[in-house]
Amino acid sequence: MSTSHHAPPQITPLRETWRQLMTSARSRAPRLRASLIGLAVAAVVQGLALACLMPLFQALIPAADWQAALPWLLAMTALMLAGTAMRWWAQGFDYRGDMVHNTHELRTELGEQLRRIPLEVLQDKRAGGVNATLLGNVDETLSYVLTIANMMATALITPVAVALAALWFDWRMGLILLLVFPLLVPLYRWRRPAFGRGMRMLADANERTSSDILEYAQGLPVLRAACCAGKRAERLQASFRHLETIQTIGQKKGAKPNLVLATVMELAVLLVVFAGALFVVQGTLDVAILAALMVIAVRFGEPLATFVLYAKVIDLIEAALGKINAMLRIAPLPQQVPAQVPQTFEVAFEGVRFGYARAGETTLRGLDVRLPTCSLTALVGPSGSGKTTVTRLLMRHADPQAGRITIGGVDVRAIAPEQLNVLISVVFQDVYLFDDTILANIRMARPEAADEEVEAAARAAHCHEFITRLPEGYQTRVGDIGGRLSGGERQRISIARAMLKNAPIVILDEPTAALDTESEVAVQAAIDALVRDRTVIVIAHRLSTIAAADQILVIDDGRLVEQGRHGDLLAREGRYASMWRAQQSAKNWHVLEPRPAFRVMPPDLVFSGGGGSGSAKALLSGEKG
Ligand code: ADP
Questions:
Q1: Are residues 500 and 528 in contact, defined by beta-carbon separation less than 8 angstroms?
Q2: Distance from the CA of 355 to the center of ligand 1, in angstroms?
Q3: I need a surface site. Which of 114, 239, 414, 501 has the fewest CB within 10 A?
Q4: Given the CA of residue 539, which atom of ligand 1 is nearest to it?
Q5: What three-state secondary structure class fits 508?
């Protein structure tokens, strides 16, 4: 059998698969190992039991001799029972709950890993992919292992044991059997790289489809509103078709070698019959041995012929193990020791350079800036300039390649992750509410908070009133009222969360950008309460909302191009001033369009520039006047 060397066999050696399997068996590894060895032993014992057929037939053919037959009958029975008992014990891994426990353990571990891996890395993974690994791969790996191992042992080990025993009765027949059965191995090795690749492609296709389904389902409201649900459905269809193609290829690749192997096995049985018949005619082989061997050969033909199918499952398991181990291998961000706790809350970026691993180019090109305690800093700049990246680095979704970020003089890399989390609250433009009660949704910011504290936070965030109007007040489940919460109400719930968390540093990622004017007023009031006496960073698109910030940082292409207060920046007639004018005229155009006579009026520039701590007034001034 020639091995095709064209395609590099990018398959994991079986030894590695074994190692990965034992790694994912976690605390149950010794049990799993014992069970697998148990199955192998059971297969040997079963082979020996079948080999008893040879002396048994000798005792019965041609003249039945009960005295001679009885011991072999008993031996056979004893071996069969021993083999079965052994198999039962080994399979106990499945039915005694070890397997389920193991699956649970592995899933928990992967869940914890999800919390540890840098968010930047996680962001690159699609939710569906993570879902496929945690749910599909984990089950694929462990549920099938013992079943498949049992089948493989019956297909491979038992025939070899029989063949070895046959050597004792007739060395020629034993040799023929020993030569025929191991034919499987080169045959299998020949096809395995293709199987492995096929299974990996299948795993990837499953992952992609899972992601597409998830995103489609989640985005459906938006898609419907935008009347492009159909277009997106086409994409989903494309992903289904891709899966179908991969499955078809897999079936073809699996079916053909399967047929080849089945044919080879048929021929092997014929070979045994022919050789045996020849020896019997020559008078050198007992016809009873031949009869026994025929029974045995027929008994093995089937499991051997379906061997390729089991082998495919091994590759499925292997592909799953690969995904799981890849996830477990992602290293968390390094932690500097000893861990330090900042005592003050000014934030500083010192010579920060950063590029996303995937993008391959620098996103931030040397950022030096200080955010004094209890000041409000606004980040403005064109989309893609790096504003979000600045906030992500502060939250330590990733570490900069050069420079450092400090809170109260302490490098964020020296702050324990839980501690850093306590220090920073974030209010995003998109609010994620979990399917739980409103109370729980707010409380998640500080799980130990009392009901009164949650309510106080809700009052401060201007949501107490609308919450009490809900059918079950704070106990209303978000899932039950689903779409009944307006964007502004959801936003205020998320602000209540941040209120409750009471972190000294607050990041606002354009929380009002998507709201209508009316909601915006309420949300702004909530934000004003939130940002009081804290170190705040706001990412803003609409400059009018940040005109009273303590400092405005104009970012362009990863660089700080201007820095100062609204008034100063306008006077400088630079980047900010032109952005400001562009937005003002766009606004006036929009509002005044029906009355062209007014278009020449200068934009309303009445802003309270010297906004002190820059909190309340800062965010309220502007468009809603
Ligand atoms: P802004 O918030 O100013 O719109 P971002 O900080 O989101 O800008 O993005 C800055 C640049 O980094 C963009 O070119 C963007 O494409 C890139 N970028 C953002 N997130 C990632 C990511 N997870 N992986 C790779 N590149 C990213």
A1: no
A2: 9
A3: 114
A4: 2
A5: strand
Query: CB of 357 closer than 6 A to ligand 1?
Result: no
Tokens linked to 174: 């034993």
Going along 360-431, which residue ranges are E strands?
362-371, 376-380, 402-407, 410-411, 424-427
Phi-psi region of 482 (alpha: psi -120 to 50; beta: other; left: phi over 0): left
Q: Tell me how long the chain is.
A: 625
Q: Cβ(275)–Cβ(173) under 8 Å?
A: yes
What global pTM score does this model have?
0.68
Give tens-digit pLDDT for 140-191: 777 788 888 888 888 888 888 988 999 998 899 889 888 876 666 676 677 6
Mean residue pLDDT of the chain comes to 82
CA 408 to centroid of ligand 1, rounded, Å: 27
Q: How does pLDDT run across 82-112, given as a tens digit for each residue?
A: 999 999 999 888 878 888 888 888 888 888 8
| Domains along the chain with CATH numbers | 9-328 (1.20.1560.10), 347-585 (3.40.50.300), 588-620 (no CATH)
Compute φ and ψ for 380, nearest 5 degrees: -130, 160
Residue range 235-274, pLDDT digits in tens: 888 888 888 888 887 777 666 766 777 787 778 778 888 9
Instruction: Confirm or reject: Cβ of 358 under 6 Å from ligand 1.
Output: yes
What is the CB-side half-sphere exposure of residue 424 using CA atoms within 13 A?
Answer: 26
Distance CA 502, CA 98 (A): 44
Pocket lining: 3 vs ligand 1, CB cutoff 6 Å: no
Nearest-CA residue for ligand 1 atom 19 is 389
Tell whether ligand 1 has an atom less than 6 A from the beta carbon of residue 386. Answer: yes
At 73, list the tokens. 């009958």
> Tokens 């920060």 correspond to what residue?
352
Out of 352, 362, 363, 390, mutate this one to test ligand 1's pocket (max ligand atoms within 8 Å of CB): namely 363
